[in-house]
């Protein structure tokens, strides 16, 4: 392993974390690579290359941010998957595992190949002729004030039904904890090969989540009476005013490789985070209710609110 690619959160201060990595890389004679747009955010010794070259040139990627940054790192390497180590700078990440103080040991374990790989699937999507991938979900969302999303669902070429709702979310198993979950969808084990389609605020048509196998092909087609639709990929706007066309979606296994150093601890932390999502308390209110011992554990496991 000679080169590490850095994928930076677009707005957060990454100076401290990059400094830790830069000092480690200097001691171990490793090359650091970052995209040209981020060259002003890193030391001059970090090599800058065109964005599409980072994943190609690197042996592994270091994602510095939250889940959104991690998803971007996975997407950047989808044509040639590389191991991605997530360093936490977000609020409540479910994909990232490492806190900044743990980085030197984590990097040394990465170098010595003392880790396991968690393989992730993605959704390959043809959006009106444009190809995109999503590791969490792809969503068709109504523009505010413009009516409802009206579209039909076909599975393997057979018409299944229709939606009239605020949004339709198609998610992978890891994406089932995100937009789909907020819309009332089920939690799916990351070990499962499946796709979940969940409507948000359904008014008519299909009103429950549909769980499909990984081998079934999905087609969502806008109807003439539909409002203009925003197409989101992993929470990023891909198309902001679609009024016609279709989205074809298929499931691709082993599209992303996530580094896991302590899978059991990672799972326990995520269980704690999931349990906090359904509590109707602000973080400060929650801390007042917790026993002191549990509060110390929660403060250790979860970053402070921003």
Structural write-up:
Helix content is 25%, strand content 37%. The chain is of the alpha+beta class and 306 residues long. Strands 1, 2, 3, 4, 5, 6, 7, 9, 10, 13, 15 and 18 form a twelve-stranded mixed β-sheet that branches. The chain has a six-stranded antiparallel β-sheet with strand order 14-12-11-8-16-17, with no helix packed on it. Strand 4, helix 3 and strand 5 form a beta-alpha-beta unit. The radius of gyration is 21 Å and the shape is globular. It starts with a strand and ends in a 5-residue tail after the last helix.
**What spatial form do the alpha-carbon principal axes imply?**
globular
Q: Whole-number radius of gyration?
A: 21 Å
What's the β-strand tally? 18
Strand content: 35-45%
Overall SS class: alpha+beta
Average residue pLDDT: 89
The CA-CA distance between the termini, in Å, is 35 Å
Largest sheet: 12 strands, mixed
Helical stretch count? 8
Percentage of residues in helical conformation: 10-25%
- Uncertain runs are 302-306
Could you give the order of the helices and strands?
EHEEHEHEHEEEEEEHEEEEEEEHHH
Main location: cytoplasm
Active site: 67 (proton acceptor)
Binding site for NAD(+): 67-68, 136-137, 164, 166, 174, 201
Catalytic activity: NAD(+) + ATP = ADP + NADP(+) + H(+)
